[in-house]
Amino acid sequence: MKLTFLGTGTSMGVPVAGGFGSENPTNDSRDIRWRTSAWVQTDEASILIDVGPEFRLQSLRSGIRRIDLLLVTHEHTDHIAGMDDLRSYNYVQKQRIPLVTTPSCRSSIIRRFNYMFGPDRTPGSVDVDIKTSDAPFQFKDCMVTPLPVLHGDLPVYGYRINDLAYITDANFISDETYELIEGAKVLVLNALRWSPEHPTHFTIPEAVEAAKKSGIPEVYFVHMNSYVKHAEIQKRLPDHIKLAYDQQVVMIP
Ligand SMILES: [Zn+2]
């Protein structure tokens, strides 16, 4: 199984429009982060996790030719703003794209992209089939398990796909969800900044604690802000925990 990080940045992206947070730029390409999203490929399936504002650019940059399944973590704009650019995949694949997400995200997508749904849908607009169950399901050669976590008060789904556990935009993981990720080989986890604490995201030290608690042997952090300088922060982390960077590829046995 192949995981590609399409983006690893926080909601405003890195660098931020207008220059906020860019007081100390580096020449390190790993310090440029598009909005957090990932692409999982297996022998049988091409699965997209989140569809943010840079989705079209990310799909071109990484060469996404098919989307068999779309997993959306939650309704914040940095995770769904690229919905309209799924149109070309409907056009080529000539079928609806199955989409799994939380109940509140389903409502939000239907409200915000109302022209894609209902009797008055714009002909030729994006065609997705949204399911909201958190029950594990088999999709081609993937066992997919939604992972309920909290992003402040907002329920978010992480997803386990075979031996990959992917959790973004969380600052609380319940014991039940730790059980669901037990035995995974790779964990992806959000880690916004070193400090101070944030009401809806893990900081890097908090994410290190959560990663250790999971017992998963290989860990990648995503959803980082512009103050996280890759080379400097990586040195402070345990060996098995890496800061992910855009277009990084991880093979999962
Ligand atoms: Zn986000």
Architecture overview:
The protein contains 7 helices and 14 strands. It is α/β, with parallel strands linked by helices. It has one domain (2-251): Metallo-beta-lactamase, Chain A (4-Layer Sandwich). The strands form 2 sheets. It has a 7-stranded mixed beta sheet, covered by helices on one side. β2 and β3 (46-49) form a beta hairpin. It is globular and about 55 Å long. It binds zinc ion. Residues 11, 36, 76, 78-79, 169, 223 line the site of zinc ion (ZN).
- What integer is the average pLDDT? 97
Category from helices, strands and their pairing: alpha/beta
How many β strands by DSSP? 14
The distinct bound ligands, ions and cofactors come out as: zinc ion
What CATH architecture would you give?
Answer: 4-Layer Sandwich
Unreliable runs = none
Shape: globular
Q: Percentage of helical residues?
A: 10-25%
CATH superfamily: Ribonuclease Z/Hydroxyacylglutathione hydrolase-like
Q: What is this structure's SSE topology?
A:
Blueprint: E1 2-7, E2 37-41, E3 46-49, H1 55-62, E4 69-71, H2 77-80, H3 87-93, E5 97-100, H4 103-112, E6 128-131, E7 137-139, E8 142-151, E9 154-161, E10 164-167, H5 175-181, E11 186-190, H6 204-214, E12 218-222, H7 230-234, E13 241-243, E14 249-251
Zinc ion binds at residues 11, 36, 76, 78-79, 169, 223.
Compact description:
This protein has 253 residues and is of the alpha/beta class. The protein has helices at residues 55-62, 77-80, 87-93, 103-112, 175-181, 204-214, 230-234; strands spanning 2-7, 37-41, 46-49, 69-71, 97-100, 128-131, 137-139, 142-151, 154-161, 164-167, 186-190, 218-222, 241-243, 249-251.
